[in-house]
Amino acid sequence: MAEIYSKTQRAVRWYPPAYDIRVETVPVPKSAALSPAIPIKTLTSCLRSILHPDDAIVKITLAGLCGSDLHVYRGHEDVNDPLICGHEFIGEVVALGASFSSDATNRPALYSDLKLGDKVVSPFTVSCGECHFCRAGISCRCIHSKLFGIPDLPGGQAQYVRVPKAGGTLFKVDSITSLMPPGEEHTLADSSLLLLADILPTGAFAALQALQHPKISPWVNGSAYPYNSFVPEVMASSRPPALPLEDRALTFAVIGLGPVGVCATVSLLHLLAEIHEKSGVTFRVVAVDPNASRREKMQSVLALPSFPPNIDTVVVADIEDAKGVVARWTGGVGCNAILEVVGNNSALTLAYELVRPFGLISSVGVHQAPQLPLTGREAYDKNVSFDFGRCPVRSMLPIASSILIKRQDVFGGIGDQASLIEKVVGFEEAAEVYDLFDKGRCGKVLFDPWQ
Amino acid sequence: MAEIYSKTQRAVRWYPPAYDIRVETVPVPKSAALSPAIPIKTLTSCLRSILHPDDAIVKITLAGLCGSDLHVYRGHEDVNDPLICGHEFIGEVVALGASFSSDATNRPALYSDLKLGDKVVSPFTVSCGECHFCRAGISCRCIHSKLFGIPDLPGGQAQYVRVPKAGGTLFKVDSITSLMPPGEEHTLADSSLLLLADILPTGAFAALQALQHPKISPWVNGSAYPYNSFVPEVMASSRPPALPLEDRALTFAVIGLGPVGVCATVSLLHLLAEIHEKSGVTFRVVAVDPNASRREKMQSVLALPSFPPNIDTVVVADIEDAKGVVARWTGGVGCNAILEVVGNNSALTLAYELVRPFGLISSVGVHQAPQLPLTGREAYDKNVSFDFGRCPVRSMLPIASSILIKRQDVFGGIGDQASLIEKVVGFEEAAEVYDLFDKGRCGKVLFDPWQ
Ligand SMILES: [Zn+2]
Ligand SMILES: [Zn+2]
Ligand SMILES: [Zn+2]
Ligand SMILES: [Zn+2]
Question: Which GO terms describe its molecular function (chains A, B) (predicted)?
Answer without folding.
Answer: metal ion binding
